[in-house]
Design a protein that fits this description.
The chain has 242 residues and is of the alpha/beta class. The chain has 10 helices and 6 strands; from the N terminus they run βαααααβαβααβαββα. The radius of gyration is 18 Å and the shape is elongated.
């Protein structure tokens, strides 16, 4: 890994849980599914109860995966699982509508995590800034970027569903570096997931930084080749060599 006092040809960031909160507005977006189910006459509990069930379902999945978000866990998957637990049956058209309700609400409520201006400003002192994010719905991610006030901050935005490669596959990191005209070995990727962000970046030859996901502590299994920062202000200090 290049030392924090060295320069990187480009700095890449993850989006969800790294630059955009996975908590602010998320519960409200999940509750919006319950509200729509109420309107359809398919659910007879408060919308907040549906959000509680979502959190229970996702919490169980995370616990089974060492508190790392599995790559296969997209909104469609946890919506299906939550509907099953809540014993709610919907048609495929209704299922698509519920997912759209969530996507619209989530994008509208997107909020950038404190410290993002400092982190991006420090990254800019090295060179171009890229965003590499895992999501199958490119338009939703771009709406989320806009909703969080991050539009125009990146020299390249690479969404797995659009590129056709998912982190931690090294190909998406290599693709992003090539697109910005730099060598992956001269770059660093900053994210909140050990598997998709750290291991994926290292496999592509990049340096890697794991940033704490809000109040989650440093994981015991962090690869010794990766740096760790407690928040985005820590990332800014690391990039500036502080």
């Amino acid at each position: 890994m290049s030392g924090p006092n060295g320069r990187f040809a480009a700095v890449f960031f993850d989006l969800d849980g790294t630059l955009v909160s996975e908590r602010t507005g998320v519960r409200e977006a999940r509750a919006a599914i319950g509200t729509r189910l109420n309107e359809l006459g398919l659910y007879h509990k408060p919308a907040s109860a549906f959000a509680d069930t979502v959190e229970m379902v996702i919490g169980g999945i995370l616990e089974d995966n060492d508190w790392q978000w599995p790559l296969w866990l997209h909104s469609e998957e946890w919506v299906r699982r939550t509907l099953a637990v809540a014993e709610v049956t919907v048609s495929e058209d209704e299922f698509r509508e519920l997912n759209q309700v969530y996507r619209d609400e989530r994008s509208d409520r997107a909020e950038a995590i404190q410290g993002w201006p400092e982190a991006l400003a420090a990254a800019r002192t090295h060179g171009p800034i890229g965003l590499i994010t895992n999501y199958n719905d490119g338009p939703m991610q771009r709406e989320k970027i806009r909703g969080a006030g991050l539009e125009g901050e990146f020299d390249g935005v690479y969404i797995s569903g659009e590129v056709g490669i998912w982190k931690p596959e090294p190909g998406i990191f290599e693709h992003a570096a090539r697109d910005l005209g730099v060598d992956p070995r001269d770059c660093v990727h900053i994210g909140n997931n050990i598997q998709s962000d750290v291991e994926g970046a290292l496999a592509a030859g990049m340096s890697a930084v794991l940033v704490e996901e809000e109040d989650r502590p440093r994981p015991a299994g962090l690869n010794g080749d990766a740096a760790w920062c407690e928040d985005l202000l820590g990332v800014a200090a690391w990039l500036r060599g502080g």
